[in-house]
Amino acid sequence: MESNGDASERAYQAVLQMILDGEAPAGSWLREQTLAEQIGVSRTPVRQALNRLAAEGAIELVPNRGAQVVSFSDEDVEALFDLRARFEPLAVRLAVPQLTEERIAELADLATRMEALLDRRPLDTHQMSRLNNAFHGIFLAEAGNRHLTAAMQAVVRPALVTLTFQKYSERALRLSMHHHAELVEAARARDPEWAEAVMRAHILAARHAGE
């Protein structure tokens, strides 16, 4: 029997896929009962999935109306990348001196797993996004500034990250993985300035990856 947590995760992945595939385009409304029937779960896991997607900025919960898929305009994307370029490098600089050997090993493992995904086609953008979010999340979690961490978690939106990966060229993907490997090396060297510079270059490159 499927646990509620498993059902919630399955509902989350199913709805996110609908959004990313354009089956639920920007501006469309998502109904709990309809989704529950489509996915094959009760309404409770669907409600949990929608709350999670709303927290990530993929949908907006409108009182008395339901859930509406958010539209990311070019201006929205530019603004989010600008915020990341300003503050995520700072988070990395603060985090590097605090990283334990275990956390650095986690970073290295995540970087290796992302690199391995590049040789698989079609590219699993969902898995790439999950690993990428975990990689960046380690730096945010270890920055030692809860206000900065909370602000950055609101900016680094999984749905937008996945959409960005879908637009990456092969060259852009390889460059992104190179940046991850260099961030691991900077962390091992305990060099916060190096890590800060790499993260800034990483985000600026991601901004133009789909061009």
Automatic annotation (TrEMBL):
SUPFAM superfamilies with a match to the protein in the record: GntR ligand-binding domain-like (SSF48008), Winged helix' DNA-binding domain (SSF46785)
PROSITE patterns: HTH_GNTR (PS50949)
GO MF annotation list: DNA binding; DNA-binding transcription factor activity
Entry keyword annotation includes Transcription regulation: yes
Keywords recorded for this protein, A-Z: DNA-binding, Transcription, Transcription regulation
UniProt superkingdom: Bacteria
Domain HTH gntR-type as annotated: residue spans: 5-72
Keyword Lipoprotein: no
Entries under PANTHER family matching the protein: GLUCONATE OPERON TRANSCRIPTIONAL REPRESSOR, TRANSCRIPTIONAL REGULATOR, GNTR FAMILY
Protein name: GntR family transcriptional regulator
Origin species: Mycolicibacterium thermoresistibile (strain ATCC 19527 / DSM 44167 / CIP 105390 / JCM 6362 / NCTC 10409 / 316)
